[in-house]
Write a structure and sequence with these properties.
Shape: elongated
Helix content: 55-70%
Largest sheet: none
Structural class: mainly alpha
Radius of gyration: 23 Å
Strand content: under 5%
Number of strands: 0
Order of helices and strands: HHHHHH
Distance between the termini: 19 Å
Length: 173
């Protein structure tokens, strides 16, 4: 499975626009739904007494989240979301690998080729995502781990690459 080539500037621009629009629409819709529900079903405030409309405000937030999620699912397949969706799916694969990382590393230490392929994909994809998200804090540690893994693969005389990874490889761990 080859890692996708992603234009960082386009990805960051689209992600920032999406996050801004999502947060603003969530805020506006939450307030609107909450105010509308209170106008329809709310208790009137009595001097100094709480109104007891918390549940209506909470329902407004829930409705806003459901509405925004439905819109995102509907427009997720558009060209605007291509890079965002690819990175999101890549992060899901990384998360799945991370949950099994101890077993995978143990198998790689025993020279399991599939485990080494999974680690190559994991480290390489993490490097790509870290660069896209400008997360450089742990990049040196990650580069060191990847170099060590590649040295071990060369030492064993194996010809492995991250492109050989398939999600079904994780089923063995």
């Amino acid at each position: 499975m080859p890692l996708p080539v992603i234009d960082k500037s386009r990805y960051r621009k689209h992600l920032n626009l999406f996050l801004l629009a999502f947060v603003l629409s969530l805020m506006v819709l939450s307030l609107s739904f909450g105010a509308g529900l209170i106008a329809l079903f709310g208790a009137e405030a009595i001097a100094g007494q709480p109104t007891g409309n918390f549940h209506l405000n909470l329902l407004g937030v829930i409705l806003a989240v459901v509405f925004c999620s439905a819109v995102v699912l509907h427009v997720k397949s558009t060209a605007f979301f291509t890079e965002i969706d690819v990175v999101w799916q890549l992060k899901q694969r990384q998360n799945r690998i991370f949950r099994k990382l101890a077993k995978i590393k143990a198998a790689a230490a025993q020279h399991d080729a599939n485990a080494m392929i999974i680690l190559l994909f994991y480290y390489t994809s993490l490097q790509q995502v870290y660069h896209l998200d400008d997360n450089t804090l742990t990049l040196s540690t990650l580069s060191r781990d990847l170099a060590q893994l590649q040295a071990n693969i060369q030492e064993l005389g194996l010809n492995l690459s991250a492109e050989q990874f398939t999600p079904s490889m994780l089923d063995a761990f």
